[in-house]
Structures are given as structure tokens and as C-alpha cells.
Design goal:
Elements: H1 2-20, H2 47-73, E1 82-88, H3 107-114, E2 117-123, H4 129-138, H5 142-145, H6 162-168, E3 172-176, E4 194-196, H7 214-228, E5 233-239, H8 252-255, H9 260-281, E6 288-294, E7 299-300, E8 306-307, H10 314-317, E9 318-324, E10 333-340, H11 344-351, H12 366-369, E11 379-383, H13 385-390, E12 395-400, E13 403-407, E14 412-415, H14 431-448, H15 461-469, H16 491-505, H17 509-519, H18 527-538, H19 543-556, H20 563-573, H21 577-590, H22 595-607, H23 611-624, H24 629-641, H25 645-658, H26 663-676, H27 679-692, H28 696-708, H29 712-724, H30 731-750
Parallel strand pairs: 1-5, 1-6, 2-10, 3-4, 3-5
Antiparallel strand pairs: 2-9, 6-9, 7-8, 11-12, 12-13, 13-14
Helix pairs in contact: 7-9, 16-17, 17-18, 18-19, 19-20, 20-21, 21-22, 22-23, 23-24, 24-25, 25-26, 26-27, 27-28, 28-29, 29-30
Length: 751
């Protein structure tokens, strides 16, 4: 009976194998037929032939399987690879499809994860944009690079960045960033030949809502890639979309009306897809290592906090991390072991067959790609945001194995495996473990601390406002090293602050001002308490109230680089130039490099006709922000109006080269050439301005240049164009143009 069963089973297997055998091209699955259509019986092969054929088939199948296994699982290092680092600001890992989120719309990220290596448990070191990116770019903990908060620190010149390393190896380096949090003034531009952080070119100050959408970032990245695809490069693209306030563009605004954060993620994913398409279009996708990482996550009120920075819970410290390199990395590999953002730099260097930097505190993840290493890496985490922004205690922590320990006035210990939502503080029941992890935390800090670093500095008022507009409200009244309450004990105050911010996002400034009035006596030694209230008052056009609030703050906290510039700005917008200049002079005594104070001072001097003094302020401001288009244009205008026309032309020419599509730059350059007497070049520049933007003023200037160059017929033509639609021109200008036209037409008739 047993033999019969085995025999029937073998026949069944043979039938199934025959039925499932793939057909050759053109094979319809039927047996060969004779001329009359009847089936023919092919000659049965000998048993030996069948055995040999089976062995060959098995060998081919095994070889194919083995080769396929190598292709999908092998790692190929390559010193010729380009590197594209895409950082996704404020992106939770659990809101991407690849990480199991069914409601997400992230097809491009999901595709890269399927075709690359996805890390299930990656941790940022700080849930704040600037310090987290400093850790990514240096491969070091914040206790080494000493950047602990947004805006109040600058990455020191002694810190080695991956951009510096790769630039030193001959790679082209460029960065395209999306928020003021990573503005070049904070030091992350080290090693980048191009650092595009011009959010709204031409404005005197970077705007309050200082961010740009993924579409705008892509629009400056794309032409750079067109020019540099033929050379090996390291490029950083920073996308800021999923950040408060959540305002996705259409169609995501409509699709995700109930969850705009997901809409922001979906919009960001769309442009990640555009970036990948661009790499394909310029034929570099197959030789580019792509690294995608969230810089930190976002809290949705799970433990009161909305946003990020105050606490160290999973929603804000666990981030997505994906590596993709066509034919260089395994496909569809998921790594469960915990890794850190400080591991990105050494991994990139390893994939390029370069030695790791001596300063790196992270480790290469290539062994994880190969499956040779699977264990968790211990991770240091911190936030100084509560101390520096609210006057509360800072939080520092250690994640190791299943456990997370958070050092605070009231310590916390969570088993992330059995309690992933961190609902049960196990300090009381696991006292020995808590003490052990606290000790290891001390050892890690001691081992990781660096001698160099960035000292905290006072933020300028514009920096304060920009960071506030991005959700980083500053209420700090504490000094470094002072004691402060546990943030967990201040959740009621936190709720109140978050409500005020929410009102501001909704532009309900009256309601925001009411809350800030209540907060002021609770945090009276914080400069930002006064600034927040004054801004809400000013946005209601209550400038006198705003001035009184700021002066009250300046009396309590003298020499504040936060309060005084805002007071100076408010004086300026109300036309009180003398008070504005005097206030900004106080700011410059505190910080001679305060760009806002220098810019305002230059403007006041220009208004008073003091060209030389204004020029000095412009030069000092440009030393700090050389990329500022507003400052460069103002400086060139100052030079031209001061008789320094050759120097002015040099500045304008560089501006035209940097931004060839700006009609105003070409027009001003043409006017400068005209003043110098070079009418040929003046006409060339003015024609360019007209081709970009044919305004009445552009036509008139071009007509004047042509007339002075003896090109009477051309001058007549352009004056007629001016008079066809002189919208916005004064009546006197129109009459003057008509008179000049009549004169030129008369001159032509005489010829």
C-alpha cells in the first residue's frame, strides 16, 4: 500500500510539473501535430538521456538560483558612485507605506525600500532639525559636535563633514535646503561648493515662514544636476514639507483633508519620485547611492506634545532610513537591528571604498547590508530644547536592546518590546537596570565628548521669528547648567503654548495675543515672551502696543539680542528712523555681526543720504550672508550712486551670472553700463531685461540707451512700445516720452 501511495504521489507531482512548466516563446501548450492535424507521438528518449537532461536542468536551475541569490543579496562597493542624500524633515517612520502604514500614499519611497535596504529601527540623536543634521553630516553625537538646538548654535569650523571629505576626494558637492533651520549661517554649508538656501530671493530679510516646498527645492536641484551629471558628485536635498503648519498643495490638500500631515508626506514623496526620474533622465541612477533619512519624527499629542523637541518618545526619535543603489545593494532587505543617523556618514564612505573619518562615532552599516551583523546598536538621544526654549530641564537618554532610559528630574525607563507606546515607566520596578543604564549613559557621554564645538549664541530677532514660524517657540529664561522643572510636570503650560501657536498658524492673532498675555507673568524672564506678544499685537496693526511690550521687556532684560532687534524693526516700520538706528546700534554692540541690525542700519543711512556709512554696513552684512540677493543688489546700487560704477558693474555681472532669469538684475546692469558710457553693453543687457519681462520701464530705458548710441530708429520703436501700454507710469513720464518720440521721429524724417 505504501508503494502504491508513493507511486500515485510521483505521478501527481509529474502531472503538476508538466502543467506548470513555462512555455517557450510561440508555444501554445499543445503537442506537435502532423500535416492532417492529428497528434504525433514523439520518440520516447532513453532513460539515460532523461537522467542526464534532469541533471542539466537541475544544474541550470540551481545555478540560476545561486546567481540570483548573489545578485539580490550581494554588496558591491564602488569608488565611482555618486551619492544623493535626501533628508525628510519631521517624517515619522510609521507614516510610510514601506513601514506598514496602510493609509499612506508613498509609492516612490516604498519602491526604493523594496529595491534597496530598509532599516526598521533607525534613531535620530536629537528631535530637532539643525542638531540632527549636524549628526548626519559629521557622523558624531551632539556631545561631540556641540550643536544642541536650532538656531542658537553654529557648527564649528573644526568639525569634519562628509561634504568636506568627499570634496577633498574630487567630488562635486551641492546642497539644496528647504528651511531656515539649516541656513548657511549655522555652519552646515561646510564643504559644499553650492549651498542653495535662498528661500525668497530679493527680500531684505528671510521671511518669517522661512521654508520652501519640495517643488521649489526640486526646481533648483534639477538644473544643477543637468550641469553636473557628467561628474562624480555628492548632493544633499533637504525636504521640509511635513512640518507644522500642515498645508499640503492640491491635490493632496483635498485627498488628505482629514489628515494634512499625510498629505504633506504624499506631496514630498511625489517629488522624491521626480528626483528619481531626473536621475534616470541624465543616466546616472545606475551609478548613484541614494540615502533617504528622516531627521526626526513628529508627535501627535500621544503624550501632550504636538510637534517635536520637548520629549524623547518614539514618535519623534524613530525615523525612516533607506539605502538604494542599483546592482550594488541587496533588494528588499529589511534590517530589524537598531541603528543611528550617525551611521550614515561612515556607511557612505565605506560604500565608496574610502576609509572612515577618524572623528566618526557611528559605524558602517555595510555588515548589516550583508546580513553579517544584526544586533542593536546603543543610541544616545537628547533634547536641550526644554531648557533653552522653556527654562525646563533638558532630557538625555540611552536606547539599548529592548530598553530606553531617559534621564530627567523624574527618570523614565521603558521596555520598547513589551510597551512600544511607552505607557509604563518601569523605573520603580527595574531600579537596578535604570541605575546601570544611567551609569552607561555617563560613560557614553564621557567617551563621546569632543574638545571642539559650537558655543551657543543669542538668536537675532529674525532668526527667532523664523524658527517660531516653523514651530520652535522660544520661552527660555534658564541659563546653561541651571536647574529646571521636569517637562512632564509642565504639560499644562505646554498645552497653553501650543494653543497660542495654533492660533498663530490660523492667523487668529487676537486669540494668540490673549494667551501670550497670560503666559508673560508665568515666564517673565524670557525675551521671547515679550516678542511673541509684540508680534501678535503688530500683526493686528497695534504697533504702539507692540512697542510698549518690547520696551517693557528691554527694561527687565537689558541688552537682549532677541528683544532689541524686534524693537528696532518696529520703530522702522512706524517711520521712527532715529529710534530704529539707535536701537540697532545697541544690537551691534552686543553682536557686531547681527545681519538684521546691519541691514536696517544700512537702510537708514541710505535714506539719510550717508552713502559711505551705508556701504560700510552693507559690506559687514555681506561678510555674514554673502548669498543675500537683497544685500548684493543694495550694495551694487550704493556703489553706482556713489560714482563707483566699475565696482557696481562687477557686482551686477556676478548677480546676472548667478540668476540669468532676473529681469531687474539685467536692467540695473544695463543702466550701470549706460552710466559708464558703454551703450553697446547697456543695450545688450536692457534687451535681455525686455525679453524676460517687457515692462514700460524696461522699454523706456532701452529706448534711451538706443538714442544715446545713435540707433534712432530702434529708439523710436521702443518708445512706441512704451506708449502702447504705459500702465503704472506717471503722467509726466508719459508726456516726456511723447515729446522725446516726436523729436526722434522728426530727426528720422530729416535723414
Amino acid at each position: 500500500m505504501a508503494k502504491k501511495k508513493h507511486s500515485r504521489r510521483r505521478k501527481k507531482v509529474r502531472r503538476q510539473a508538466a502543467a506548470s512548466t513555462p512555455q517557450a516563446p510561440g508555444d501554445n501548450g499543445s503537442r506537435p501535430q502532423g500535416p492532417s492535424g492529428e497528434e504525433t507521438s514523439p520518440r520516447r528518449p532513453s532513460k539515460l538521456v532523461l537522467v542526464l537532461a534532469a541533471l542539466v536542468i537541475i544544474g541550470i536551475a540551481a545555478g540560476s538560483w545561486f546567481l540570483g541569490f548573489l545578485g539580490k543579496g550581494s554588496v558591491k562597493k564602488d569608488g565611482r558612485l555618486n551619492v544623493l542624500l535626501i533628508t525628510m524633515d519631521t517624517t515619522r517612520a510609521d507614516r510610510l507605506g514601506a513601514y506598514g502604514y496602510a493609509k499612506g500614499q508613498t509609492p516612490n519611497l516604498d519602491s526604493l525600500a523594496r529595491k534597496g535596504v530598509r532599516f526598521e529601527n533607525a534613531y535620530c540623536q536629537v528631535p530637532l532639525t539643525l542638531p540632527s543634521h549636524c549628526s548626519i553630516m559629521t557622523g558624531t553625537y551632539p556631545v561631540y559636535h556641540h550643536v544642541h538646538n536650532n538656531g542658537s548654535y553654529v557648527l564649528g569650523p573644526e568639525q569634519l563633514t562628509i561634504a568636506e571629505v568627499l570634496k577633498g576626494r574630487g567630488l562635486k558637492t551641492a546642497a539644496f535646503v528647504a528651511s531656515f533651520s539649516v541656513d548657511s549661517r549655522f555652519g552646515l554649508n561646510k564643504g559644499f561648493e553650492v549651498y542653495d538656501d535662498d528661500f525668497q530671493p530679493g527680500l531684505p530679510f528671510k521671511p518669517a515662514n522661512s521654508e520652501r516646498k519640495a517643488e521649489q527645492v526640486f526646481s533648483v536641484f534639477s538644473p544643477w544636476l543637468d550641469k553636473n551629471a557628467g561628474t562624480q558628485f555628492f548632493c544633499w536635498v533637504h525636504l521640509f514639507d511635513p512640518h507644522l503648519p500642515y498645508q499640503p498643495p492640491s491635490p493632496y490638500k483635498e485627498q488628505f483633508a482629514d489628515n494634512p500631515y499625510d498629505g504633506e508626506i504624499a506631496s514630498m514623496d511625489f517629488y522624491i519620485g521626480k528626483i528619481i526620474e531626473k536621475l534616470k533622465d541624465v543616466h546616472v541612477l545606475d551609478r548613484t547611492l541614494i540615502v533617504l533619512a528622516g531627521d526626526h519624527g513628529e508627535a501627535f499629542g500621544e503624550k501632550v506634545e504636538t510637534g517635536h523637541g520637548v520629549f524623547l518618545y518614539e514618535g519623534t526619535v524613530r525615523v525612516p532610513l533607506i539605502f538604494y543603489a542599483e546592482d550594488h545593494l541587496p533588494q528588499g532587505k529589511v534590517v530589524k537591528g537598531r541603528v543611528r543617523l550617525i551611521d550614515i556618514m561612515p556607511t557612505i564612505l565605506d560604500m565608496l571604498n574610502l576609509p572612515g573619518a577618524a572623528t566618526n562615532q557611528g559605524m558602517s552599516l555595510v555588515p548589516y547590508f550583508r546580513g553579517r551583523k544584526k544586533s542593536d546598536l546603543e543610541s544616545y538621544i537628547e533634547t536641550y530644547y526644554p531648557r533653552e526654549n522653556f527654562g525646563w530641564s533638558e532630557l538625555i537618554g540611552l536606547v539599548d536592546g529592548d530598553w530606553k532610559f531617559i534621564r530627567a528630574p523624574k527618570p523614565e525607563l521603558y521596555n520598547l518590546k513589551s510597551d512600544p507606546k511607552e505607557g509604563r515607566n518601569a523605573v520603580a520596578t527595574e531600579q537596578k537596570l535604570a541605575a546601570e543604564m544611567n551609569g552607561r549613559l555617563d560613560e557614553l557621554i564621557k567617551k563621546s565628548s569632543g574638545a571642539g564645538g559650537a558655543d551657543p549664541r543669542a538668536l537675532t530677532v529674525e532668526e527667532q521669528e523664523r524658527l517660531r514660524s516653523l514651530g520652535y517657540t522660544n520661552f527660555s529664561g534658564a541659563t546653561a547648567g541651571s536647574s529646571g522643572p521636569d517637562p512632564k510636570d509642565e504639560v499644562d503650560l505646554l498645552k497653553l503654548m501650543q494653543q497660542a501657536e495654533a492660533y498663530e498658524f490660523e492667523k487668529n492673532y487676537a486669540a494668540a495675543a490673549d494667551i501670550y498675555e497670560k503666559l508673560l507673568p508665568l515666564v517673565p524672564d524670557s525675551p521671547a515672551s515679550y516678542v511673541n506678544l509684540a508680534l501678535s499685537q503688530a500683526r493686528q496693526q497695534k504697533f504702539d502696543e507692540a512697542i510698549r511690550t518690547l520696551r517693557k521687556g528691554a527694561e527687565r532684560i537689558p541688552n537682549s539680542e532677541t528683544l532689541l532687534p524686534r524693537l528696532g524693526h518696529t520703530y522702522l516700520v512706524t517711520g521712527r528712523l532715529k529710534e530704529a538706528f539707535e536701537t540697532m546700534s545697541q544690537v551691534l554692540k552686543i553682536n557686531p555681526g547681527n545681519v538684521d541690525a546691519l541691514t536696517v542700519s544700512a537702510g537708514v543711512m541710505e535714506t539719510l543720504g550717508k552713502k559711505g556709512e551705508a556701504r560700510g554696513f552693507y559690506e559687514r552684512a555681506l561678510a555674514v550672508e554673502p548669498e543675500s540677493k537683497y544685500l548684493r543688489m543694495s550694495y551694487a546700487s550704493n556703489l553706482a550712486s556713489s560714482g563707483k560704477i566699475t565696482e557696481a558693474i562687477g557686482v551686477y555681472r556676478q548677480l546676472a551670472q548667478d540668476d540669468p532669469g532676473d529681469a531687474v538684475v539685467h536692467q540695473d546692469l544695463g543702466l550701470a553700463y549706460g552710466i559708464s558710457g558703454d551703450y553697446g553693453k547697456a543695450i545688450e543687457s536692457l534687451k535681455r531685461a525686455v525679453s524676460i519681462r517687457p515692462t514700460p520701464t524696461a522699454y523706456y530705458n532701452l529706448a534711451v540707451a538706443c538714442a544715446k548710441n545713435g540707433e534712432t530708429a530702434e529708439a523710436v520703436r521702443y518708445l512706441r512700445s512704451y506708449l502702447e501700454d504705459p500702465k503704472g507710469e506717471s503722467e509726466s513720464s508719459i508726456k516726456n516720452a511723447q515729446a522725446v518720440l516726436q523729436s526722434l521721429e522728426a530727426a528720422l524724417k530729416k535723414k
